[in-house]
Amino acid sequence: MTGAVSEHPLNQSGIPTWFLRALNEIIESLEQVQPLRLTQKRDAFRALRSFGALLELRAELLAASLLARAGVGFEFASDHPDLVLVGGSGGIEVGTRALDSPRALHDELELRLADRPDLLVLLTFDGRPLKLGAERVDRIVEDVAGRTYSEPSTNLRFEDAALSVGITTGTGFESAQVVLNFGGQSGSELTDHLAEVEREIDNKIAEKRRQAQKMPTALLLDFSRVGVAWLRPGSVWIPVLRSKLNGEPFVGLGLMVSTLDSSLPLHLHAVLEPRAPAELHEALDKIAEQFNLTTEV
């Protein structure tokens, strides 16, 4: 990629074409409208050195592209909030969170076993945990990846993680395949999981409060990589977001879920306070109408 640092994640081999296609669509929508400071944002993109940092910036670019494609004038801020509406009447701060220990375990094992052919590793959790802790994930990875498997099948159990691991050999796969499954989840287990997701929203709100000091600001959180946040419909998320907005310095709060193969969010649920500037109300109304998303004032 022209001008990018050598460690840039897109310089790595194996980046799926569907990921690049969706990212290009986001960037092209911004190139068409040329918001102020797009050049600085382009420089920041070229300087990325990790896939996690790329996904964080992608969330901001996705939010910006929604404004661009809905015909809302804006600019990239020199400081905060991230996106400022033309005229400076209000802004949007974008935040992301990556927290899904089972998915992290899957990805770490896939990386560690990449050079081990003929293996199928099936990870089956009894429920749907959100957090296992980094040390526990590392220990499971070391235990599973550190073994030599000669039997047709091997079963391991990690009680402290409520996890069963099945390893099958002789599969014919060129590299190990890791599959993630979750057992039957009771209503109470799913409730506990989503309560953890809500606590992470609270943590992100606390982290971002100072970004609302300069102007009326709506906080938009991309929780695509936080458990099963996507499972709740807008009719459930809207009152939750409304309650979390009470007493906060933000004039709006939104939750976005996106997939990496699309240049549009899968879900976007947002609420605005009546005191939010008319320009912010108009901006969210245009986005909601253009992309069939859920907002409430």
How is this fold's topology laid out?
Blueprint: H1 17-33, H2 38-46, H3 51-69, E1 74-76, E2 83-85, E3 91-99, H4 101-112, E4 119-125, H5 134-145, E5 153-158, E6 163-169, E7 177-182, H6 187-208, E8 217-226, H7 234-245, E9 252-258, E10 265-272, H8 278-291, E11 294-296
Strand order of the largest sheet: 1-2-3-8-9-10-11
Question: Would you identify the CATH architecture of the largest domain?
Answer: 3-Layer(aba) Sandwich
What global shape is seen?
A: globular
The biggest beta sheet reads: 7 strands, mixed
Number of discrete domains: 2
Distance between the termini: 42 Å
Structural class: alpha/beta
- In what range is the share of β-strand residues? 15-25%
Q: What oligomerization state is this entry in? A: single chain
> How many strand segments?
11
CATH class of the largest domain: Alpha Beta
How would you state the average pLDDT, rounded? 92
From the alpha carbons, calculate the radius of gyration and give it in angstroms. Answer: 21 Å
User: Which sequence of SSEs, written as H and E, runs from N to C?
Assistant: HHHEEEHEHEEEHEHEEHE
Classify the helix fraction into a percent range: 25-40%
Number of helix segments? 8
CATH fold-level label of the largest domain: Trna Endonuclease, Chain: A, domain 1
Which regions have little confidence, pLDDT < 50, spanning 5+ residues? none
